[in-house]
Predict the structure.
Amino acid sequence: MKSNLLLLATLAAAGVLISLAAGADDQPPAADKPKSDVAAALDRASISLAPAYTLAYKFAAGDEIRTKVVHLVTVETTIKGVNQTASTRSVSTKLWKIARIEPTGNIVFEHSVEDVNMWQNVTGRQEVRYNSTTDRAPPPGHEHIAASLGKVLSVITMDKCGRILARDDKQKQFNPGIGDLTIPFPAEPVKAGGTWSIPNEVRVSLDDGTVKKVATRQRYKLDKVEAGVATINVETQMLTPVNDPKVQSQLVQRLQKGTIKFDIDAGRLIHKQMDLDESVYGFSGPDSHMQYLARFTEEPATADAATATAKTEKPGESTK
């Protein structure tokens, strides 16, 4: 009897006694309930008492946030029995200059890319390299990239949750990697295990010249919080059914699946990694095949670790 009273007292303290007591006259005593029911009740109580976290950017006017972005891609294709491999690697420094914080709390910043170190190798073609910090002139076809470096690409207005409210593009954009410019957080505090989604629409060109709109969403999940660092899982989910391999071949590089680590107290990104390993069959004939491997990482540019990693890893191997 004492053990039963102790169990009831424990459940009452956890805020679950009312739900267990509903219809108590028609149910067996708590001592006769399966252990799984008690465990489930305790799990619900644990969830209800778990802390909720506010995920938000924290900047001040004049802040300069530099991140090192590394993008590795290997695309292997087979068309009519002919195999081709295209591998690319880019290491760049992204800069956000915080212009001002508006009375509403919205953040206005200038987005630019300061430098880039690129490498490209395609079967049957000469290897191409470009390092903006050491090369006087870019190789043919890369002039627009060189022209955009060090210049303001866009002026962005976002709220503290990372939702872009306005964007004024100043230059032709050079995007060295995959992924959104900001991380969109939920407006309300979220507990570990909580999820939120951001709808999106991707436009794909068809052979007849028309454009197909494909509805997607980014699904985020707060996996855990340890020592003030939030680990967030992210994955692209396709909402529009796509059965055409030609369309699928254009969509693969727009997919995301990976992990974000965010310092809650500082309101800053610690690390972001997205990995892709996708296959498409029949995109250019019945025997055609494409294997798309990619890795995107972003972290504070406090060292040359990202550059060293990119130099030592082969794009195809780094995604496995």
User: Anything to note?
Assistant: The mean pLDDT is 83. The CA atoms of residues 121 and 127 lie 5 Å apart.
